[in-house]
């Protein structure tokens, strides 16, 4: 009796294997195990783990296959609901475990309010107020009133080198007749920088190159060009301008008085001449 071809054996084996896989998968799908999911979170520092899992929008009735093939939908849910989350990724581990890997937005600065300090993230978003005890040992404080300016400033700071941003202590607005968006940056090395908000991301990096040549308490002016001065020099200049203005006003007043006196004398002379002429005519 001839033996069956080897090819038939392989075909029969493949049918049995595929059928077994389908059977096991079917049994798994109708069992409670198909809905049992274990989710752990990694990468979060400020966001709460239980809240992140809830914000994914995963239901108890969702199958494991739903998470496998629709992971991007749940990741989008989380990013749209949680202010801290910059990136989210669901990673599957056999048999029913998932790891939610998140990357949070970086805190760029804080804004002080009556209720505490408000963290401002790198995308300009503000999150819940924290107490002074919750603040890091070193941070940047922003004292700007306009929300639009705060968001623009934070987004520009996020583009700068982190060490440069960390060297800033306080950022405030400056009154300037020529530059409406001029800022004053109080640095942690006791120097100060004046720079327009619109140009802070292009001009401020120069500070790292020149700070080693500055004397303590220097003021670096980047409003127009770049030069350094000190508070004493600026006070002396301001005093000189005030003195010059006062002297100019006094001189102008004296000139006016002199002109007035000369005019009076001229009028008196003309009057005397008129009287003399009138007498002669008589």
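Q: What amino acid sequence fits the structure above?
A:
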């Amino acid at each position: 009796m001839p033996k069956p071809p080897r090819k038939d054996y392989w075909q029969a084996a493949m049918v049995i294997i595929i059928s077994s896989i389908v059977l096991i998968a079917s049994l798994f799908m109708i069992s409670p195990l198909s809905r049992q999911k274990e989710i752990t979170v990694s990468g979060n520092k400020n966001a709460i783990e239980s809240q992140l899992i809830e914000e994914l929008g995963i239901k108890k009735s969702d199958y494991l296959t739903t998470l496998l093939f629709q992971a991007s939908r749940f990741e989008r849910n989380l990013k749209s609901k949680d202010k801290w989350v910059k990136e989210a990724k669901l990673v599957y581990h056999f048999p029913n475990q998932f790891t939610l890997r998140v990357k949070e937005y970086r805190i760029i600065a804080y804004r002080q309010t009556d209720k505490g300090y408000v963290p401002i993230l790198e995308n300009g978003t503000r999150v819940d107020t924290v107490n002074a005890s919750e603040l890091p040992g070193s941070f940047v404080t922003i004292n700007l009133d306009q929300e639009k300016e705060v968001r623009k400033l934070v987004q520009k700071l996020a583009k700068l080198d982190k060490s440069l941003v960390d060297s800033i202590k306080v950022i405030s607005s400056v009154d300037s007749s020529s530059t409406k968006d001029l800022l004053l940056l109080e640095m942690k090395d006791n120097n100060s920088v004046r720079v327009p908000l619109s140009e802070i991301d292009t001009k401020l990096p120069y500070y790292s190159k020149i700070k080693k040549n500055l004397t303590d308490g220097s003021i670096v002016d980047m409003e127009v060009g770049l030069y350094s001065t000190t508070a004493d020099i600026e006070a002396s200049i301001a005093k000189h301008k005030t003195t010059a203005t006062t002297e100019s006003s006094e001189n102008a007043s004296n000139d006016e008085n002199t002109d007035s006196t000369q005019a009076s004398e001229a009028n008196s002379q003309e009057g005397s001449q008129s009287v003399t002429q009138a007498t002669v005519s008589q």
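Q: And what stands out in the fold?
A: The longest strand covers residues 85-93.
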